[in-house]
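quick one, 422 residues, struct below
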Amino acid sequence: MMRKLLLGFVSIMLTFIATSKLSAQTYALNNGFTSGQTITTCSGFFFDSQPAGNYGANENYTVTFRSNTAGRQMRVDFTEMGILAGDSLEVFDGLTTAAPRIYVFNAANSQPLNLVSGNADRALTFRFRSDATIQGSGWRGVLKCAPPCQPIAGGITINGVGADANGNINFCPSPTTNFTIAANVTFPQSGPFPNYTQSVALSRFTWNMGGIANDTATNGVNSFVRRFNVAAGFNVKVTVLDTNGCSQVFTAKLRGSVKPRFNVTGGNMCLGDTLSIPATFTAGVGGFIQAPIQRNRQIALVDNVGGSGTCGLAVRDTLTVNQFAPGTTISNLTQDFIGVTVNMEHSYMGDLSLQLIAPNGAIIDLKPFINDLGTSGGGTNLGEPVLGDAGNNPTAGRGYSYRFRPAGTSATRSLIAAGLAP
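---
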C-alpha cells in the first residue's frame, strides 16, 4: 500500500511540473504578436522569429517589454545568442527606439548576458535587423522583473592615480616602467533585500582600449599592466556589468607626455639663493591614438553569373568614422594611416578589385583589377575557397586575414600591398 501511494505522488508531481513548463508564455519576435507591440509582463520566454530554427533574411522587427510590478524593473536574461555578421539585436532603455541604446548584440558581441531597464517606465525595447546573407540561430531570453539598478562608483586609474576635472590622467612614458590600468569601483548600496549583493568579483568588465592593447585580451578583468614607450594619448573606456544586468561606463583620457629638456647656464650664486631652471619641450609630438574601426559583415560576391563570364556588380559597404574631430586631415599616410585588415577567401585574385572611397571622392586602391599599379595576382587563391561552386550561389570557404598597408605618401590611388599568409 505504501508503495502504491508513493508512485501516485511521483506521478502527480511529474504532471504538475510538465503543466507548469508548458504554461509559460512564449514571445517570438513578430511570430504570435505584432512588430512594434508593447507587452506588459514579468515572466515568459523571448525568442527570435523562429524559435525552432534560424531567423529569416531582411527582418526588421521591434518589441517592447514592460514590467507589470511597481518598484521592479524589466529584466531579460539571455541564455542563448547566435547572431551572425551583418545582423544585430539592439536594446534600448525605454518604451521606444528613441530611448538611450544600452547594448547591441551582433557577431562581435554574442556572449549571452542579463539586461535590466533603468527608466521610470520600467521598459526595455528590442529592435532586430538582419541582412540578406546567412542567418543565425537567434536567441533565447527569460523575462522577469528585478530590483532597480544600484549605483557603481569609482573610475579608471593608472598606478592608483585617477582623472583630473577634465577627465585626463597624465603620466611619463617609460619602456622599463609597468603601469597598472584599473577600474577602481565600489558598490555603495550592495546588501540584502530589497538591494542585492554586488562586488568586483561578481562584475563583468568590458574594455575599449583606444589602441593601447587588444580589447578582447583585457575583457573580464578589472586591471591589467602595460608599458608605454612613446608620447601619445589614449581614449580608454570600461563598461562594468553587475549581476542584476545593470551597467556603468567609465572613461578617461590617458596622456603620456614628452620628455622635458632642462637648460642650465653657468653663473655665480650664494647659498640660499633661488635658481630657476626653465624646461622646454617639442610641441606637436604625439597625439591621441584612435582605436581601429571594426565592421563585422559577411558578404558573398557573385561573379560569372550564368556562366557568361560577366563579373557581378560592385558591392559597397559604408564605414562610419567618428573618432576624429570634423576637418581633421591625414598629413602623412604612412604614419597616420596604419592600414586595413580584411578577412576573405576568393578563388581568383585577378578578377577582384578592392577600393576605399572617401566622402570627397578620393580613392585608395587596395587591390586593382589590372597591373597599371602593380600585379593583379592572376589565378592566386585568397584564403581557402571552395573551388567549382556555382557562381550565383557561392559556398563559403575559409577566410584568411590580409593586412593592407600604405606604400607611398599619397592617399590618392596608391597601391597598398598585402601579404598572402593567413
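Residues 77 and 114 are 4 Å apart (CA to CA).
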